[in-house]
Write a structure and sequence with these properties.
By secondary structure, the protein is of the alpha+beta class. The protein has eight helices and 33 strands. The strands form ten sheets. Strands 4, 5, 6, 7, 8, 12, 19 and 20 form an eight-stranded mixed β-sheet that branches. Strands 27-32-23-22-21-33 form a six-stranded mixed β-sheet. The N terminus and C terminus are likely disordered.
Length: 491
C-alpha cells in the first residue's frame, strides 16, 4: 500500500513505514503536501523500523555462531582434506618418477660413475684408477641407441658399448688381420646405418695384431668408429660368467700367433677354430662402438626393460625413424633394415610357421602371403642371388639383381640372427642346387634346394607411411598400416 512517497511493508505482522526518497529537510515533506501530523507519524515509524532491524541483526549473529564441538569437527575435517592432498600428491609424484625416471642436466658418464654405482664385490661396475668396467652377469648396463640395444663394456674418456645380440653372420676370410677381413669391411657399412654417428660416437683404437691369450699385448692398432670385442675385454668382464656371454657364436677382434681368429662359442668359451683346411667358418658379428662422454640421458635406469635412452624416439613418418626400429604392420612384427629414396625395407623379426622348398619360396610369398597386406603400401624391392664362399665378399653382384614385392634375406643383411632355420638367397653351388640356410646354431649351412625350411620375409613400404603410435622399441613398436585393408591382388 502506498501513500504518496510512503511505502508500507509487512514483516511478521508488523507494519513498517519507510521513506523511499532521500529526506534532507522538513521543507521537502511540506512541499509534497505532507502535514505536520503526518511528519510526526513518519518519524515515529522510522524509529520503530530501526528497532526491528537491530532485533533481526541480533538473531542473525546468534545463528552464525558455532559451538565448541562444531569447531573441533570443522578443524579436523580441514586438516584431513589437507593431509589427503599432501599424501596423494606425493604418491603421484613418486610413482611418476619411478615409471618415467626422467633425468635432467646429467650426462650418461656422470650418471654411471657416481659413487653409489661403484661395486666392491659381486656383479657391477668396478673402478680402477679412474677406469671403470662392468663385471659379472647381473649388471644394469643397457643403452638403447639407433634402434638397437647395447651393453656398456667400460668407461674411460668415453663409453664403449657392444650390441646385445649378433647382427649378422659372415666368414672372416683367409686374411688373419682384422683390417683385411670381410668383417671390418662390413662394419664400415654398418656404421652408416647408425643415427647421426658423427654426433653420438667418437673414434677409438682397435687391435690389429696377433696376441697371446694369456699375456695380452697389442702393439698395432687402427682408429675407427666401430670395431669388435677383444679377448681381453671378454675375460675382464668375467668370460662365460658375464653379461657378454649371450650364448651365440660371435667373432672377437683378435687372432692368435698362428693366424687363427678367436671367437666365442655358444657355451661362452673362447675358441680359435676359424678355418680348417679349405673350410672357413662363419660366426656372428657383435659391433662395438664408442659413445661420446658428453651424451645426456633422456630416461631409463639401465635395466633391460628400461635401458638408458639417449635420443628422441617415435617420429611421425616411418622413413624418419632409425634403422633397427621395431615396426608392427598388420599384426606382424618387423625391423627396419634400410631406408632409401624408394621406401623403407623391413625384415620379419621371426620366421613364418610354414616350410617350403627353396624353389617355392618366392611363389608362396608373392601369391599367397602378400594377400594379408595392402599392396598399395608396398614397393618392389631389389635382391640378389649370388654365390658365397670364403674368397668372395658379401657385396652383391648387380648382374644377379632381381626385384619383387616380398623377398628373403641375403648373407650380410642386418638382424639375421633373430631366428634360425630359414632360407637365404645365396648359394654355395648352383649346379648341385645347394643354397644357404641359417641353422640352429646361427651358422651358415648349405642344403639342397628341394629341402624344406622356414621363411623370413622382407617387405618394402612406401615413403608416405605414417606412424600412428609407438617408439620403435621391441616392447613398443611403431604401428603402421590399417588392419583389414589387405589387397588380394596377385602378381
Amino acid at each position: 500500500m502506498k501513500d504518496n512517497d510512503i511505502e508500507v511493508l509487512d514483516f511478521d505482522d508488523e507494519v513498517i513505514y519507510t521513506e523511499k526518497k532521500v529526506v534532507e529537510s522538513k521543507k521537502i515533506f511540506v512541499s509534497n503536501g505532507l502535514s505536520e501530523r503526518r511528519l510526526k507519524r513518519i518519524a515515529a515509524t522510522e524509529v520503530k523500523s530501526v528497532k526491528v532491524d537491530k532485533k533481526s541483526d541480533k538473531k542473525s549473529d546468534k545463528k552464525g555462531k558455532y559451538g565448541i564441538g562444531e569447531k573441533i569437527f570443522l578443524s579436523v575435517s580441514i586438516l584431513f582434506i589437507i593431509g589427503c592432498f599432501i599424501f596423494y600428491g606425493y604418491r603421484t609424484y613418486h610413482f611418476y618418477h619411478l615409471t618415467h625416471d626422467i633425468v635432467k642436466n646429467i650426462t650418461l658418464k656422470e650418471k654411471l660413475t657416481s659413487l653409489n654405482n661403484i661395486a666392491f664385490q659381486n656383479d657391477g661396475l668396478y673402478e680402477k684408477s679412474g677406469y671403470y668396467y662392468y663385471k659379472g652377469l647381473d649388471v644394469n648396463n643397457y643403452v638403447y641407441y639407433s634402434g638397437r640395444l647395447f651393453r656398456i663394456i667400460d668407461i674411460d674418456k668415453n663409453i664403449r658399448m657392444i650390441e646385445d645380440s649378433t647382427e649378422t653372420n659372415l666368414v672372416w676370410t683367409f686374411e688373419s688381420n682384422y683390417s683385411n677381413s670381410y668383417i671390418q669391411q662390413w662394419l664400415k657399412n654398418y656404421l652408416e646405418t647408425l643415427k647421426d654417428y658423427d654426433v653420438y660416437l667418437d673414434k677409438s683404437e682397435w687391435c690389429n695384431d696377433a696376441i697371446d691369450l694369456n699375456d695380452y699385448n697389442c702393439s698395432t692398432v687402427i682408429n675407427d668408429y666401430v670395431g669388435l670385442l677383444s679377448t681381453n675385454d671378454y675375460l675382464q668382464a668375467g668370460g662365460k660368467n658375464s653379461y657378454l656371454n649371450n650364448e651365440t657364436y660371435f667373432w672377437t677382434i683378435n687372432q692368435d700367433l698362428d693366424g687363427n681368429v678367436y671367437y666365442i662359442n655358444n657355451e661362452g668359451n673362447i675358441n680359435n677354430l676359424s678355418k680348417k683346411e679349405e673350410n672357413y667358418y662363419s660366426y656372428g658379428i657383435r659391433p662395438v662402438i664408442t659413445l661420446k662422454a658428453d651424451i645426456g640421458i633422456i630416461s631409463g635406469d639401465g635395466s633391460k626393460n628400461s635401458p638408458f635412452i639417449i635420443e628422441d624416439l617415435g617420429n611421425a613418418l616411418l622413413k624418419d625413424n632409425s634403422i633397427g626400429s621395431f615396426v608392427e604392420y598388420y599384426d606382424d612384427t618387423y625391423r627396419i633394415i634400410g631406408i632409401d629414396d624408394k621406401g623403407v625395407s623391413l625384415i620379419y623379426d621371426d620366421v613364418l610357421e610354414v616350410e617350403k622348398s627353396y624353389n617355392d619360396v618366392y611363389k608362396y610369398l608373392n601369391n599367397e602371403f602378400i594377400k594379408k597386406y595392402n599392396k598399395t603400401d608396398l614397393v618392389k624391392n631389389d635382391y640378389y642371388i649370388n654365390e658365397y664362399s670364403y674368397n668372395n665378399k658379401y657385396i652383391r653382384a648387380n648382374s644377379n639383381k632381381k626385384s619383387n614385392y616380398i623377398t628373403i634375406p641375403s648373407i650380410g643383411d642386418l638382424f639375421l640372427n633373430s631366428s634360425n632355420g630359414y632360407w637365404l638367397n645365396d648359394f654355395s653351388n648352383s649346379k648341385l642346387g645347394l643354397y644357404y640356410i641359417l641353422d640352429e646354431n646361427e651358422m651358415l649351412f648349405s642344403d639342397l634346394s628341394s629341402s624344406k625350411h622356414y621363411i623370413k620375409p622382407i617387405i618394402k613400404l612406401n615413403l608416405e607411411m605414417v606412424v600412428s603410435s609407438g617408439t620403435g622399441m621391441e616392447a613398443d613398436p611403431l604401428i603402421v598400416g590399417e588392419e583389414g585393408e589387405g589387397n588380394v591382388e596377385k602378381n
